[in-house]
Write a sequence for this structure.
């Protein structure tokens, strides 16, 4: 069967990015007007195959970038990558040493889908909460701290938005143009760690 690439995938190929997902991040960063000049360090959760980290490193070569995923990524010069489950993030010594030092935590994490709706919804909610808790620990406690997390439009979305609002101010919901309209994925962002 012929694979039909959409315009974002073609654009990514042409511009030398690893994934079409980079445009979702780009669009959220632009919408939020997150002042990149004030962002010196980023933690990328659910980073494989490395599209977001690679994009950020190309755009902002001086950024310090840490990344984690259960899957491996092809090496990106200057990125500190850990192949590990986010559930174990604090057990990684190099990461534990960086607690409270990041300006931006981004998560595009998406677990494998079982097809059983209740199981999938609980699974993503659990991982979203673990990611949120990790972000709260990893970020600097100041009003430049930013957080972006992918989740899904399901029965837990309201609950998650509330959980995020207990940790950050100025919460927003995003469905970037580069996110497929038939996908339930949606992003939440917040700033100014409470
Ligand atoms: C949509 S992909 C991320 C794409 C990435 N932003 C990019 O641009 O290349 C979602 C990632 O979440 C990862 N993931 C799922 N469950 C995870 C977990 N428990 N811990 C860490 N990563 C996980 C998957 O392995 C997958 O690579």
């Amino acid at each position: 069967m012929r694979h039909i690439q959409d315009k974002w995938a073609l654009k990514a190929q042409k511009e030398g990015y690893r994934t079409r997902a980079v445009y979702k991040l780009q669009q959220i960063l632009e919408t939020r007007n997150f002042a990149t000049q004030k962002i010196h360090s980023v933690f990328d959760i659910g980073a494989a195959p490395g599209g977001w980290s690679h994009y950020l490193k190309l755009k902002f070569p001086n950024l310090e970038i840490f990344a984690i995923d259960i899957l491996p990524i092809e090496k990106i010069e200057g990125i500190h990558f850990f192949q590990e489950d986010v559930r174990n993030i604090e057990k990684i010594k190099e990461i534990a040493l960086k607690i409270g030092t990041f300006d931006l935590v981004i998560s595009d994490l998406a677990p494998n889908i079982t097809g059983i709706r209740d199981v999938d919804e609980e699974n993503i909610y659990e991982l979203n909460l673990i990611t949120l808790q990790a972000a709260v620990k990893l970020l600097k406690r100041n009003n430049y701290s930013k957080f972006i997390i992918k989740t899904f439009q399901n029965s837990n979305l309201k609950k998650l938005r509330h959980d995020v609002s207990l940790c950050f101010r100025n919460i927003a919901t995003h469905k970037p143009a580069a996110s497929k309209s038939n996908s339930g994925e949606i992003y939440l962002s917040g700033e100014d760690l409470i």
Summary: Strands lie at 41-45, 64-69, 79-83, 104-107, 146-152, 168-174, 185-193.
